[in-house]
Model the fold of this input.
Amino acid sequence: MKQAHVDRNRFEQAVLPQLDAAYNLARWLTRSANDAEDVVQEACERALRYFDAFRGGDAKAWFLTIVRHACYDWIKRNRPAEIVPGEADAIDDAVDPDGVTPEQAVIRQATTAALDEAIASLPAGYREVLILRELEELSYKEIARVADIPVGTVMSRLARARGMLQRSPVLHSIRERSTGRG
Amino acid sequence: MDCHETTALLQAYSDDELDPVRSASIERHLIGCAECASRRDELVKLRARIRTEVPYYSAPQPVRARALAAIEAATAAPPRPRRERWTWVTAGALAGSAATVFAWFIGTAALEWQATSDIVTEAVANHSRATLGNRLVDVASSDQHTVKPWLSARLDYSPPVRDFKDDGFPLVGGRLDYLDGRPVATLVYKYREHTIDVFMRPIDSGKPATWRRSATQRGFNVAHGSAGGMECWAVSDVSMDVLASLVQHLTSSAG
Done:
C-alpha cells in the first residue's frame, strides 16, 4: 500500500501529545483496556493516512475525532449489539427532567467504583460527551466537533448524563448500603 | 432570570460557557433562590466527585510503542543527509583567509550543534528502543544499593544512584547503553505510567559542557543537567516540567 509522504516530525508533534486523551476516550468508549489499545493503534494508522488533510490548528480535537470514529467502527465490527440507532434521542425522552431532591443529596455517598460503574453504564452518546467534558476538559464547541453534533445537543446530553448519574441506581444501592451500616 | 431559565442554563453556567452578562444574572438569581442554589450545589458536588474519583486512563507503554511503530512503518524515509555540514566546513576551509576564519567559527558552531543533537538523537533512540522492546532494564530493582554496584561493575565510573519515590519518581532499575561511542549508565525511573531514562556519565574535563538544557525530538523531551562532576540526560514522553523536576532532584542529590 503506497501512501503519501508524511512529515514525521509534524505528525509526532501533533499526535503523540494526544495519546493519553486518545486512550482515555477509547478506554471509556470500548470499556476494555485491550480493545482501547487496538483502537488507538488503528486511529494512529488512520491519522497517518489522513494527515495531509490536517491543516494545523486543534490537533487534539482532530485526533479525538478519528479515535472516536475508530471506536465506533470497532464496536460495530465486534459488538454490534451495543449500537442502538437513535439511542441517545430515545433516552432523552425517557429520562425524568426533574433533578434530585436536597434530601436525596444529603445522604448520597458512594464509592469510587460506584461512580465508575455508573458512568460506564451510560449510553455511549452520553458517556462520550461527559468524558470529553469532565476528564478532557474540552469546551462545548470542541466536543461538538469531536462528536459531530450541534453545540445545543452537547449541552442537553451533558445535562442528561449528569442527571442520570445523580439518579443512578448504582449510586442509590451504595447509598442504601452505607446508610444501613451507620 | 427566573427558576426555569436558571435551570436550563445551569449546566452551561457551571461549565463556564456563558457570557458574563448571563452568568451574572444567574448568580443574582442563585443568591435569592434556595432551590436553584441547592441544584447548583448538587451539580458542583457531582462534578468534583467525577474529577477526583473517576480514573483518567493514561496511555500505557504498549500504546505508545505501537503508535511509534505505526509511525515508523508509515514514514520509513531515507535518513537525513549528514554530509552537508562537513562539505560546508570543507568549503569554508578552502576559501580565502578572512573567509576561512569566518568559516572556521561557523564550522565549529555547526559541529558543536551537531554533537549536541547527536547525543540527543542517540539518547532518544536508546530510550525508544528500550521502551519499544522488552529490554527496559538490565537490573530490575528499586534499591539503589543493588543498581549502583551492578552499574559500577560494568563501567569505569560509579554513577550516583538515588530513588526518588517520595517525589513521584520511583527507581525501577538500571541498564547499560551506548552514548557518544562509550558505554553509559542508564537509570530507569517511572513517573505515573511513564518511563524516564536517565543517561549518566562523568563530565569530560577536556570538553567543557555546552549542552542545551532541554530539547524535544520525535515527540520525546530531553533535559540535561550536571553536578558533582557528572552530567545526565533525562529522556521521556512526560512534559518538560516533570523532566526538569527529576533533573533538579538528580543534580541536587549529586552535588
Observations:
- The radius of gyration of chain A is 19 Å.
- Chain A has two domains: 8-82, 87-181.
